[in-house]
Design goal:
The protein is of the alpha/beta class and about 280 residues long. Helix content is about 40%, strand content about 20%. The radius of gyration is 27 Å and the shape is globular.
Length: about 280
């Protein structure tokens, strides 16, 4: 009888030990899963780029289990600088041509995930004039100061018939104000940061700005352009090229390619941007 009681006690102790071990294993497994969650830091700009980013990252969090932190920047170069330095995992808000120029000038290797996401077309906006024909002699027009967007802005002014450009004289083949061949209205070109110059529209005759920046300035209707570029540059998620084939990049590619966010994008963009798949 005593022997039977001892055996029962031993069995109970063993059961308790196994139960505690199982509990610890489950807790360990739970901790491992929690630690396995991938945290992404994404740089962008306030406005349509932030909104478009959030649509995709919400799916990354809910469907794929990522933890995402979105950081808004003011300066046009700051996010990609942080990306190349390893402080961010990806960026969205800069056009493809701009990114390529940034890489050349900063000796880095960044790439845009395909399919590309949306466009924010460059346009000429004015608070003083209702048409290009009204632009007066000695008009002041603000254009972006960075190489890529300055080049595109000068080409836009030429396309609109306000200037005639010559061949680029810079080593990187981008047009600058020094390359203006004909300026019949003696237009005064003022250079400014692309993310903020549209706010000065009341102080000049016109500004050249992308539609998203125009809308974000708070005093420009993105549909009120005097003239708009016919071939805008695509915008999408930018990563270090070494991460272009990562699981996260593939997940983003699948989300955009599926078209599942198209309707939501058109609702939040409100004319500030246009899907690459829908641009004509």
């Amino acid at each position: 009888m005593k022997m039977a009681k001892k055996l029962i006690c031993v069995a109970l102790v063993l059961m308790l030990v196994f139960a505690v071990a199982a509990c610890n294993n489950n807790q360990s497994s739970s901790d491992d899963n929690q630690e396995a969650a991938v945290t992404l830091k994404v740089g962008t700009f306030a406005g349509v780029s932030h909104d478009a980013c959030e649509l995709v990252t919400d799916v990354l969090e809910s469907r794929y289990g990522y933890e995402v932190e979105i950081l808004d920047f003011d300066g046009n170069t700051l996010p990609c600088t942080a990306l190349k330095d390893g402080e961010l995992d990806m960026v969205i808000g800069n056009a493809l041509a701009w990114v390529q120029t940034f890489c050349e000038q900063n000796n880095c290797d960044l790439s845009m995930i395909e399919p590309y996401y949306f466009y924010t077309p460059l346009g000429i906006y004015s608070a003083r004039w209702d048409s290009l024909d009204e632009i007066p002699q000695n008009a002041q027009i603000i254009i972006p100061s960075d190489s890529s967007n300055m080049n595109n802005s000068l080409l836009l002014l030429e396309e609109a018939g306000l200037l005639t450009m010559g061949e680029p004289t810079t080593t990187d083949s981008f047009l600058t104000t020094l390359d203006i061949a004909e300026n019949p209205l003696n237009i005064q070109i003022i250079e400014g940061d692309i993310t903020s110059s549209a706010r000065s529209i009341e102080d000049v005759d016109a500004v050249v700005a992308v539609s998203s920046v125009a809308a974000s300035s708070g005093n420009i209707d993105p549909y009120s352009y005097l003239y708009r570029a016919s071939k805008p540059g695509p915008i999408g998620f930018i990563v270090r090229t070494e991460d272009l084939t990562s699981e996260c990049a593939n997940d983003i590619s699948e989300i955009i390619a599926s078209g599942e966010l198209d309707e939501a994008f058109n609702e939040v963009s409100e004319g500030r941007a246009f899907l690459c798949t829908e641009w004509e």
